[in-house]
Design a protein that fits this description.
The complex is a heterodimer of chains A (about 550) and B (about 130).
Chain A: H1 6-28, H2 33-41, E1 45-47, E2 52-56, E3 62-64, H3 65-78, E4 82-85, E5 91-96, H4 101-109, E6 127-128, H5 142-153, E7 168-171, E8 185-191, E9 197-203, E10 216-222, H6 226-240, H7 251-258, H8 260-273, H9 276-279, H10 283-292, H11 306-314, H12 316-325, E11 326-328, E12 334-339, E13 350-352, H13 353-366, E14 370-374, E15 378-385, H14 389-398, E16 413-414, H15 429-438, H16 442-448, E17 453-456, E18 470-477, E19 480-487, E20 499-500, E21 505-506, H17 510-524, H18 531-538, H19 541-550
Parallel strand pairs in A: 6-7, 7-8, 16-17, 17-18
Antiparallel strand pairs in A: 1-2, 2-5, 3-14, 4-5, 4-13, 8-9, 9-10, 11-12, 12-15, 14-15, 18-19, 19-20, 19-21
Chain B: E1 6-15, E2 21-25, E3 28-30, H1 42-53, E4 59-70, E5 73-76, H2 79-86, H3 102-109, H4 117-125
Antiparallel strand pairs in B: 1-2, 1-4, 2-3, 4-5
The chains are: A alpha+beta (about 550), B alpha+beta (about 130).
Chain lengths: ~550, ~130
């Protein structure tokens, strides 16, 4: 795992000292709110409905045990004992006091955590494939490249005042686990025929009120030119992105208005003119970063473990856990363990301080001290020896985090919605809780199979509703909570934006509508066909008919 | 559900130092909605808002909200403001709702709403 060096540590200390002084000046009245607000946002501090919210960056979604435990400590000491993992693989604390913020930043800096690049019109904390270094199909470890980009983008003077916020993700394998096409820049690692390493570059994706899937502007960018090519994209955006209208300021609008081809041409022209050698990371530095992501000391273990097999046969819940939450690892005898933060009835993505402590313990004891965050708002123990799986399962079960529902109906993404968020029009969490509870039964859930429901409380789409197999968007209809339902979306390798099925549905009728959709799927599906594939095959009509016959 | 006519105004905001939801009331900013001053005359609400804005080291972005009477109990008209007055609907142990009382119970029982004009204006301002 990458450890911040002395330069990083000093930078965090300076940043904390600077913000401490800014808070002091604001409280003393030496600064107006208009002057202070951009400064607090640059430190991840938002004003929400009930309190300040602090968004903490989790670079490439990776946490050490010490960092996870420190987040638990911060939540326990200065918040209400829990945090909320987000679709950008960060964590948000919902009950922060401004006067505590300097102490919180200081405490986090001790373990290399911070809130830099979690707000403002800069390049935000960059996302990577959460199974990095654990997955056999990955082309290369994306964290190496994301760390290089972190160092390049943090406080980059040219890209700190962009027209709008800017989000980048790097996927590492043919199977996308970052939702790369909905990012301002999404990348997918590739190898050319000659074995050369590179990226497919997609630009101009995004959700919100004008959703787009990012078109590919370059099929293959040699990896060593990552930073110069990024610089070229950022310069074209910085020059031509609209600053006059906040709703048209994202790069997706620029790419859509120019057309992907013309945008790509401008980027290539810019790139040709750049002094690439002055910008690209030297090979030696990449090697230095790569060394810090070296594989842990895996043991040679049998690929099948008799005790695990026996427990699977004896315990149905354990067998279900293995089936839905545990994935093959690149090293025989190891597995990737997905930790669902979606126990039906609980708040999607929420994790208590005690749970964070316990997961940190499990990671340290059984997982080479690593935890990852998945954009589905779940956690991952990426390197668990198969022989330790029963102990890890027991450890998770003891803290209520062994729900075997990864990818099933109750594994729902939900933004904080109107329960916390100042921008929301409607609640998202209670809708998720009700649906998850209705479909909690494992037999029912397994019969339905893979189903990705995503809920946002407003058009800004933090809950990724446009790319849900079933997307649910909260709207305010004359002061009442209504929900617009869409079908057929995906943010992954089968990326597509969902189709709105019809008029928004009253809050209390949403779960019935979801059940009607699922019943329609069961009627229409062919053997082994997923919900989303059935929808894409048969189209809107039967689903629409079912919802508006039953829910209205 | 009884009356739903919007009758009254109150002034609210979040406290600078800790983000706490507060309402303008007797003797200053109060943490509980039941302690909010309710203005039948919009001009009085405007005056309270002006006073609030004059002390920017205490309150961030104060604004006026609509309040109606449900029976004898004042209730913020908009759902958003009811959530602010109570706390998250998903954590009934958090926020102001934890302490209970008849007015908070009336707010929790209320339904139907118009959007909070004050808050909408703030969002537009961004």
């Amino acid at each position: 795992m990458y450890r911040y060096d002395a330069f990083d540590a000093e930078m965090l200390q300076d940043r904390t000292a600077e913000f401490t002084d800014q808070v002091r000046r604001r409280v003393a009245g030496d600064m107006t709110e208009d002057q202070f607000k951009p400064l607090r946002l640059m430190n991840g501090l938002y004003m929400q409905l009930h309190a300040y919210m602090l968004r903490v960056a989790i670079p490439y979604g990776t946490l050490s045990g010490a960092q996870l435990r420190r987040l638990g400590h911060v939540a326990r000491t200065w918040d209400r004992g829990f945090g909320h993992f987000t679709t950008r693989t960060n964590i948000q604390l919902n009950w922060i006091k401004l006067k505590d913020a300097p102490a919180i930043l200081e405490s986090m800096a001790e373990v290399g955590l911070h809130a830099i690049q979690t707000s403002g019109n800069c390049i935000r904390n960059i996302t990577a494939d959460p199974y990095a270094g654990a997955n056999a199909e990955e082309v290369d470890d994306p964290r190496v490249w994301v760390e290089a980009m972190r160092q390049w983008s943090t406080f980059h003077p040219e890209f700190s005042y962009l027209p709008r916020k800017f989000k980048i993700a790097i996927g590492a394998a043919p199977n996308d686990r970052t939702a790369a096409r909905i990012y301002d820049i999404g990348m997918k690692m590739r190898r050319a025929r000659d074995g050369k390493l590179g990226f497919e570059v997609m630009v101009g994706g995004g959700l919100g009120r004008t959703p787009y899937l990012g078109p590919t502007i370059r099929e293959f960018l040699p990896a060593e030119h990552l930073l110069s090519y990024m610089t070229a994209i950022m310069r074209v955006y910085n020059r031509h992105g609209r600053r006059d209208n906040i709703h048209k300021a994202r790069i997706k609008i620029l790419v859509a208005s120019l057309g992907a081809e013309e945008f790509a041409r401008q980027v290539e022209t810019e790139w040709e003119a750049l002094d690439k050698a002055a910008i690209d990371v030297p090979e030696a530095e990449i090697a230095r970063i790569r060394a810090s992501f070296a594989s842990p000391a895996f043991k040679t273990l049998p690929a099948i473990n008799d005790a695990v097999e026996a427990l699977k046969a004896a315990s149905r819940p354990f067998a279900q856990f293995v089936k839905h939450n545990v994935l093959a690892h690149k090293v025989p005898g190891y597995v990737i363990v997905n930790v669902s933060l979606k126990a039906p009835g609980e708040v999607p993505g929420d994790c208590t301080s005690d749970q964070m402590d316990a997961i940190a313990d499990l990671a340290e004891r059984y997982g080479f001290d690593e935890t990852r965050v998945h954009f589905d708002q779940n956690l991952i123990l990426p390197h668990v020896a198969l022989e330790d799986l029963p102990a890890v399962y027991e450890g998770l079960r003891a803290i209520g985090l062994a729900t075997p529902n990864i990818g099933l109906t109750s594994d729902i993404i939900a933004c904080p919605g109107l329960d916390y968020c100042a921008l929301a029009n409607a609640r998202a969490i209670p809708v998720a809780q009700e649906i998850a509870t209705r479909f909690a039964d494992m037999e029912v859930a397994e019969d339905i199979g893979e189903l990705r429901i995503k809920i946002s409380g407003c058009i800004n789409a933090c809950g990724h509703h446009h790319v849900g197999h079933i997307g649910i968007l909260g709207v305010d209809k004359k002061g009442e909570e209504f929900y617009q339902v869409s079908l057929g979306g995906s943010g992954l390798e089968d990326a597509r934006l969902g189709d709105i099925i019809g008029p928004a549905i009253a809050g209390p009728k949403v779960t019935d509508a979801i059940e009607a959709l699922i019943n329609t799927y069961k009627k229409e599906r062919t053997t082994g066909e997923r919900f989303v594939d059935t929808y894409r095959r048969v189209g809107l009509a039967p689903f629409k008919a079912a919802v508006y016959a039953e829910a209205h | 559900m009884t009356a739903t006519v919007s009758l009254l105004k109150a002034v609210t905001g979040n406290r600078l130092a800790d983000g706490e939801v507060v309402f303008w009331g007797e003797g200053g900013w109060r943490e509980r909605f039941p302690d909010a001053s309710l203005f039948a005359d919009p001009a009085d609400a405007d005056a309270a808002l002006d006073a609030a804005k004059a002390d920017p080291t205490v309150i961030v972005d104060p604004y006026i909200i609509d309040v109606r009477l449900d029976g004898e109990f004042p209730v913020p008209t908009s759902f958003r403001e009811r959530v602010r007055a109570l706390g998250p609907t998903t954590h009934l142990d958090m926020g102001k709702q934890a302490e209970g009382g008849p007015i908070l119970e009336a707010i929790a029982a209320a339904s139907g709403a118009a959007r909070s004009a004050g808050r909408s204006n703030l969002i537009k301002k961004r």
